[in-house]
Amino acid sequence: MSQTDPTNLSRVPCTIVTGFLGSGKTTLIRHILENVRGKRLAVIVNEFGDVGIDGEILKGCGIETCPEENVVELANGCICCTVADDFVPALDAILARSPKVDHILIETSGLALPKPLVQAFHWPAIRSRVTVDGVVAVVDGDALASGRVAHDHDALAEQRAGDVQLDHDDPIEEVFDDQIACADLVIMTKADLVDAEGQVRARAALDAELPKGVSVVSVAQGRIDPAVLMGLGVGTEDDIENRRTHHDDEAEHDHDDFDSFVVEVPEIEDPAAFAARVARAAEEADVLRVKGFLPVAGKPMRLLVQAVGPRVSHQFDRPWGAGPRTGRLVAIGLKGLDRAKVEAILSGAGARSGVSVPA
Q: Which of 9, 240, 273, 329 fits a disulfide with 292 by CB distance 3.0 to 4.6 angstroms?
């Protein structure tokens, strides 16, 4: 749909931000919330796991034009699988807000396929009220420079390097390809971690899948002018059937290839030491992603911990509320992720290779 189409003027634009686990979607959206001017925003956050970590990160922004009640979390499953049950009611709630919302940001889970979500914008309950301003795919430039879609898949990188005719039968590869296929704009994150040669490799990996005419913008720490990805005016729902994906011939899809669970963590003494344990969980128990909040002894602020494979970051986020200081982390991995082993490592009970860890 043309950006100047008069039928588009009464509909609220929605930007769908998709991308693989740990690619930097939440960091990007938080930067947008903190730097956009003149627009009242709302955010729909789709979690994979039982704790709304990404939603809590965004609610902690303290932005007047995107108050906490405008951040809606969908935690009952992947948004592309629960459109009718979760997404439509969330839109109803946001569109009923006063003052009126000017723009909606939708952060999908790392496992979501954008196409079914975009197709839902044709539904009668939706199509007259909102439009897809654009689909933004967020990709990990550092991982792509290393020949991977994420830093957690050494075996996948070896497979890709050894077979240039790889048929993308790995489920993670398929999800990545489908997200790129539906994109109107690609944001390549972690530019500060990649040298010039790495940037060339990452871009070459993207170009192999990138639809014609789709631009790629490199960023560091999610820092980007909000105008670059808001106001695209694409009306993606009107073109989505032309975007071919791996799952076009499937009636539905599932996420049986992944497991996630919540790990309860008591108060810790040393954030750096705990970060080392999180890195060990990636190396020894094949954890893909960890995110959550922890209490630190003697500190009134909660500690936000995020990890993509063995790369761990932590920072104090905001003061704990009136409730208990309860540490909870979401761990995500491939099917069969050993919960007991992960919990043992994070608790400090598990030793390095060669020492028994509870099975």
A: 329
